[in-house]
Structures are given as structure tokens and as C-alpha cells.
Amino acid sequence: MKPSKWTSRLACTILVVGTIAGVALAAGTQGSQSDPLVTLSYLNEVALPGLLKQVDQKLDARESELTQKLQSAAGSSQASFAAVELSAGKTLTLSAGAQLLFRSGAAASTAALADTTDGTTLSGAGALTANHLYLATGDGQSVTASAASTVLVQGSYSLK
Asked: I need a surface site. Which of 18, 20, 33, 126 has the fewest CB within 10 A?
């Protein structure tokens, strides 16, 4: 007996629909709450520690690079200004290249200093002007305070 075309078509249709339904059902359960594609334990135990390790390594490398740049910049620049209080009669002796910013009080130089604010030279025994920057052009140049004075000094100096 020969099967009819109608029954074979029905059997093929049922087979195709059943296959599609089975695939859809299998695909629909993956990635759900009960069967996630990536588990929380995988994220917490494998992925996150690996990611944090990479971030820490990059931060350490960047910190090292910035520290090195800061140290090289600090080594190339001169020391900052130091505030020095002079009482009346005290003498501040500067070494060559030292800078002095006279802030307040009354003082006079005992040797020629370059006044970089005005672009002039302060002759020996000349009175210092407030808020002027002076440069010692040689060793042993000094400033003597006639009243309590405040100066900012950059470079080597001694106080007597």
C-alpha cells in the first residue's frame, strides 16, 4: 500500500514544527534566572579579580612614572624661598647666586647687590627697598638689619 501525499506532508509538517518548538524551548531556558549564561560566582571568583589585578598593575606603573617625573623635576629646580627674621644688628651673609626678597623692616647691604626688580645695582651700604628681589653676585655679600626685618632667601646663606 502506498501512503498518500497528504499523510506524508502532515508527518513532515509535524516533524518540522516539533523540531522548531524543541529548539525554541531549549534556547528559551538558557540565560534565565535558573540557568544564567555567566554565573555570579564566575564573575566574583575569576573575572573581577583578574580585572582588578590589571587595574592595580596599570595604576602602579602610572604612579611609578609620575613619581619619577616629580623627582626629576624637583632635582632640576632650586630650593624654595625660606623665611628669615632678622632682629636689629643681625647680619645675613649670602653666597654667590643667592636671592633675597626683602619684605619688611629696615636693612642695608654691605656690598653691591643686583636689584632684579628695578634692573639696577644696589651699591654698598645701600638701603633695601621692600618687596624688591636682590641677587648676590659674589660670595660673602651681606645685609645688616637696622630694625626688625623679614626677608625671604633662596640659596645658601648664614646668619650672624
From this structure: 33
How far is Cα 129 from Cα 119, in angstroms, rounded to an integer?
A: 13
> How do beta strands 132-135 and 113-115 pair?
antiparallel
Rg (CA), the chain: 42
Q: Cα–Cα distance between 127 and 108 in angstroms, integer?
A: 4
Cα–Cα distance between 50 and 70 in angstroms, integer?
Answer: 30
- Please tell me which residue, 74 or 159, carries the higher pLDDT value: 159
What 3-state class would DSSP assign to 31? coil
pLDDT tens readout for residues 44-77: 988 999 999 999 999 999 999 998 888 776 554 4
What does pTM read for this prediction? 0.51
Q: How many CA atoms lie within 13 A of 16 on its CB side?
A: 6
CA–centroid distance for 135 within its chain = 32
φ/ψ of 120, rounded to 5, equals -125, 180
* C-alpha neighbours within 13 Å on the C-beta side of residue 33: 0
Edge to edge, what strands does the sheet with 91-94 contain? Answer: 107-109, 141-145, 91-94, 157-159
Residue 71's SS3 state is helix
Give CA–CA dist 62/70, Å, rounded: 12
